[in-house]
Amino acid sequence: MKQLLVFLTLFAFSGSVSAQETKKTTQKSRKEQKREKINAQIKAEEEGVIAYRKHFAFGIKLVSDGYGITFEKGYSKSVKKTTLFQLEISERKHQKEVKQTNNFSPTASPFIYGKINFFYPVKLGVQKQFLLGNKSNKNGVSVTANIGGGLSLGLLRPYELQVEKNGELVYVRYESDDSLLFKTGTINAGPGLGKGWNHLKFTPGLYVKPGLRFDYGRYNDLLTAIEVGVAAEFYSKKVPQMFDNKQKQFFFSAYFTVMFGKRK
After folding, report:
1. Phi and psi at residue 150, in whole multiples of 5°?
2. Which pLDDT score, from 0 to 100, does residue 221 have?
3. Which residue has the higher pLDDT, 140 or 225?
4. Rounded-to-integer distance, Cα 211 and Cα 209, Å
5. 3-state class of 106 per DSSP?
6. From CA 45, how far away is CA 120, in angstroms rounded?
């Protein structure tokens, strides 16, 4: 009986060791296959063959006067050149905006006194991407220069304030019959997310955007990159953001974007 127990114990132990060895061998094999694939891609690109012909990416963007999101579709024409089609949606804030709260109604939405419009630039454009430098390994960083531009549609959503009028609380906007009440009335609260959309206005414009992109893991299917640069926008007319402040047609800003995506 003891001999049988010893035999079963040794059999179970040997099976466990064998399974672990098989797992290690499989993992090692996968790493070797991945390494061989990357080496083949590097060699192919050295000979002018593109490793990935297209990609799709999503980005979170911080701008010197706002924030936004970006979507991108890229098509590689050669190892060193790629065409990027981009859609950006952001919110641009005025430098003099100061958020305030109603001390007598702490649950009311905060407001910005003087703000008359939300400003949402929606950009549709094309960039050319040029490879400047690349490290030939899996975890290397490739550096590219991106330059381009396109159309920018400025969406202006009226900033509506909740004020007291004839003993009732109502929402008013600057460009209306209640503009004086908007400026001098007793403010109770700021606008909610659903306010102002029925009075949306559009101001078309153009933009240019040069930048540098640092792509981590160039030979991975998954794209992870950061981009820094500047943008210049010019609109067909002045954009009203705050009353009693100079309105601008030209906007210049710096940006920082973190991007995630997939290559094919």
Report:
1. 165, -150
2. 83
3. 225
4. 7
5. coil
6. 41
For 50-88, write each residue's pLDDT tens digit: 677 899 999 999 999 999 999 999 999 888 899 999 999
Task: Round to whole Å and give the CA distance between 246 and 244.
Answer: 7
Give dist(CA 83, CA 21) in Å, integer: 47
Residues 263, 52 contacting (CB under 8 angstroms):
yes
pLDDT band with cut points at 50, 70 and 90 for residue 99 = very high
- Give the chain's count of helices (H) and strands (E): 2, 14
List the one residue out of 141, 132, 41, 139 whose CA is nearest residue 80: 132
Residue-wise DSSP of 101-168:
--TT-TTSPPEETTB-EEEEEEEEEEEEEEEEE--SSTT-EEEEEEEEEEEEEEEEEE--EEEEETTE
CA dihedral 197, 199, 202, 203 (to 10 degrees): -120
Q: Are 69 and 60 in contact (CB under 8 A)?
A: yes
User: Do 234 and 250 contact (CB within 8 A), yes or no?
Assistant: yes
For the purposes of burial, counting CB atoms within 10 Å of the CB of 101, is it exposed (0-12), middle (13-18) or buried (19 or more)?
Answer: middle
If DSSP codes are grouped into helix, strand and coil, which group holds residue 2? helix
The predicted pLDDT at position 17 comes to 46
Q: How far apart are CA 172 and CA 168, in angstroms?
A: 12
